[in-house]
Amino acid sequence: MPKLWDETMDAHRRAVRDAILETTVALVDAHGLAAVTMSQIAKEAGIGRATLYKYFPDVQSILIAWHERHVAVHLDRLAHARDSADGPAHRLEAVLRGYAHLTHERRQDGEIAAFVHGDQHAVHAQRQLHGLVRDVIAEAAAAGAVRDDVSPAELADYCLHALSGAGRLPSQAAVRRLVDVTLTGLRPAG
User: Which of 62, 127, 153, 175 has the smallest set of CB atoms within 10 Å of its CB?
Assistant: First the structure.
């Protein structure tokens, strides 16, 4: 097949897949997980049921795929924040502020959040996030910007647990204060 054809088909498949994901989330938000059928998704997405089943076997797998895409976008944003900052301390701060901001904006409750966060793929996503935070902490500790009397893995746990509270805060100002307090806890003793 010519390259242009391959690129066009790939773009079409991505567009169909994206339409399925977004349609499913909108339907589940509006009607609840138990009420949404594959037929409804196909109709609302403007595709045939047979086409839908070529992509996904059921509603739950669509929601998992949506969450995986969502997590990948968030991890890319955090990696970009890390890579755009200058120096280990600034990279750490950029990642923590980025994570707190994403946490503040994400779905905190509802049926979709309960479903996707209970799945095994969420454990993998959490490990990826933990690894990213642990690595920027280790780099900052090696540069003397972060305490070294606690392992980077434990400090990553501390940061992620502390900043998970950003989702319940009323404002961005409160989120900034939470990040500042968390960063203070990372400073070297003395």
Answer: 127
